[in-house]
Structures are given as structure tokens and as C-alpha cells.
Design a protein that fits this description.
- By secondary structure, this protein is an all-beta fold.
- About 0% of the residues lie in helices and about 50% in strands.
- The chain contains no helices and eleven strands.
- The protein starts with a strand and ends with a strand.
């Protein structure tokens, strides 16, 4: 069992940067690939980024390549999502998730955080 807790969300202006963190409980963090997803009101959950267990392999949704960076620190049981050049359409609840392999589908992840709100104001 893995418990995930996100932090770092909030209200920012257009063009700002924000870093989300997700801390995992337990000693098995390094055995999981990690992902970030987001869900805006009235929309389906959307894949943002994923990182392999070692941290060496990353992959991004098309809308986020070049603006967002996913990374992890296995010594701290933490995965990060650095977001830059934020736009109003980035407003959503952001979720971190843990699964056995890097995947783009939310169905492939076993554990989820409670989500954290990011609001980008124009």
C-alpha cells in the first residue's frame, strides 16, 4: 500500500511557475513509476507526465512538453512537477499516481493522491 500526498498548488498569475510535490509513504517508492495527471471541471482526467522508477526515463503529454518537467528523488520518496509559463487552461486539480511501469493511461496506475488545486489567473 502506498499513500501519496500532493502539495505546492495554489493561485498564480499567467506566465508564472509552480512546483508541485508528491510525497509517498512506505519504503517501496523506488519500485514504482510515478505519474502526474490533471482534471479540469467538466473534463476527463488528462495525462501530464510520467517518470520511471530510476528517474532516467520521462514522458510528457503533448501539451506539456517543454513547459513542464517531472523528476523524482527516491531518497526523499518524492516526485515533482515543475510547471512554467502557466496558462489559464492549466487550471485543474493535479494528481500524482504510482504504478508498476510508466504509462499514459490513468487506468494503469494503482495508487492516487487526493489531488491539489492549481488555478492560473489572467
Amino acid at each position: 500500500q502506498v499513500q501519496l500526498v500532493e502539495s505546492g498548488g495554489g493561485l498564480v498569475q499567467v506566465g508564472a511557475s509552480l512546483r508541485l510535490s508528491c510525497v509517498a509513504s512506505g519504503r517501496t517508492f523506488a519500485t514504482y513509476a510515478m505519474g502526474w495527471f490533471r482534471q479540469a471541471p467538466g473534463k476527463a482526467r488528462e495525462f501530464v507526465a510520467t517518470v520511471s522508477r530510476s528517474g532516467y526515463t520521462t514522458s510528457y503529454g503533448r501539451s506539456f512538453q517543454g513547459r513542464f518537467t517531472i523528476s523524482r528523488d527516491n531518497a526523499k520518496n518524492t516526485v515533482y512537477l515543475q510547471m512554467t509559463s502557466l496558462k489559464p487552461e492549466d487550471t485543474a486539480v493535479y494528481y500524482c499516481a504510482a504504478g508498476p511501469l510508466i504509462r499514459f493511461s490513468s487506468a494503469e496506475y494503482d495508487y492516487w493522491g487526493q489531488g491539489i488545486q492549481v488555478t492560473v489567473s489572467s
